[in-house]
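Sequence in, structure out. Go.
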Amino acid sequence: MNLDNVNKAIAVMERVKARGDNFDLRSWQDARSEYLVQTNEEALHTCGTSACFAGWLAVSPEFQADGGEVGPGGRPLLREYRSSRAVMAWLGIDDDMALDLCGCGDDRVYGKTDSRSVTVYDVLAALYRLRDTGSPYPEELAQ
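Output:
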């Protein structure tokens, strides 16, 4: 695990929470067209478009300073990795954890069967668990 990048991801999501930015785990960025996707955090915040955890990472200055970019639909790109695999590579976690954090895997990280009910607070709780224990899963599910 890349602890520095986990802390950066926490900082990104703390900003999203503090500003009250729109969050929706169901899409990288909720743009009506791939051509309307925002490429930086301030633009995404200002326009009010919602984004998921990975979508907010993609536009963050922290992710972009490490070579990350915003790809089609707002998904993160990092070197040869895209989507949840870019999150995997940047956070230094396994593919299953990254899929689950991005809402593309099972619901064990957030404990909710409907991704529409996952909030920025849920993502932050999972990231803090990851930082503190090495696993984003609640204690009873951590392996």
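Check: Helices lie at 3-19, 41-47, 53-59, 61-65, 84-91, 95-101, 120-133. The mean pLDDT is 92.
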